[in-house]
Design brief:
Oligomer: heterodimer
Largest sheet of chain A: 6 strands, mixed
Mean pLDDT of chain A: 92
Radius of gyration of chain B: 14 Å
Strand content of chain B: over 45%
Number of strands of chain A: 12
Radius of gyration of chain A: 14 Å
Shape of chain B: globular
């Protein structure tokens, strides 16, 4: 079945550091890929997405590229801020039918000033 | 736009009682809503897909008689945990998919409900 594996946290960085959170997936067919962010006390929000191979999703300085050859969708940001502290979830969905989401285990990111 | 609310945000109940959790799409209509369960420091696991006006579709291993789902309108789905036991204590999260307004049909998530069964 479909699955998502992302790097274990927690991850702690200093402000303005470079961020990478690794995500790899296993899927039949060609799913859509997502990064969601969960700020403290809030619901999950879509951060970015990519729907086909070589697509790059970007938002708020974050980027991720859909790599079919390595089945990966790593999240990157060049210079993190304290306000980026949150839990980040990588996810995939089928492109047909109910489009159910399958989530990775989440990575807690803490940015220190 | 695209706000999803859940009520209550947290609830404590005694073992053997039933608890109802509401999920509402506040500014859009959703024919499809999803219910997830999240254990501490773990990922979200899909429990069921809730379809307006029809029966929910449960994931393998989820007891449909224990987790009753009703999606009676385009803005409301409810999850009832029947005869709750301590092992049902968890964080329950719903999402709603906007597949009517013409926007990209992504899922919008509620803030979650923490259930503690004593």
């Amino acid at each position: 079945g479909n699955s998502v594996t992302q790097m274990e946290g927690p991850v702690t960085l200093s402000e303005e550091a470079f961020l990478t959170i690794n995500c790899t997936y296993t899927a039949t067919g060609y799913p859509s890929l997502f990064w969601y962010v969960q700020y403290p006390g809030e619901g999950l929000q879509l951060l970015l997405k990519a729907t086909k191979a070589d697509d790059k999703g970007s938002n708020k300085g974050f980027e991720a590229t859909y790599r079919k050859e390595t089945t990966s969708f790593h999240l990157e940001k060049g210079s993190v801020q304290v306000s980026d502290s949150a839990v980040y979830f990588c996810a995939l969905s089928e492109i047909q039918g109910a489009q159910k989401l399958v989530f990775g285990q989440g990575t807690r990111l803490t940015i220190n000033p | 736009g695209a706000v999803v609310s859940q009520h209550p945000s947290w609830v404590i109940c005694k073992s053997g009682t039933s608890v109802k959790i509401e999920c509402r799409s506040l500014d859009f209509q959703a024919t499809t809503m999803f219910w997830y369960r999240q254990f501490p420091k773990q990922s979200l696991m899909l429990m069921a897909t809730s379809n307006e006006g029809s029966k929910a579709t449960y994931e393998q291993g989820v007891e449909k008689d224990k987790f009753l789902i009703n999606h009676a309108s385009l803005t409301l789905s409810t999850l009832t945990v029947t005869s709750a036991h301590p092992e049902d204590s968890s964080f329950y999260i719903c999402s709603a998919r906007d597949d009517i307004s013409g926007r990209a049909p992504e899922q919008y998530f509620g803030p979650g409900t923490r259930l503690t069964v004593t």
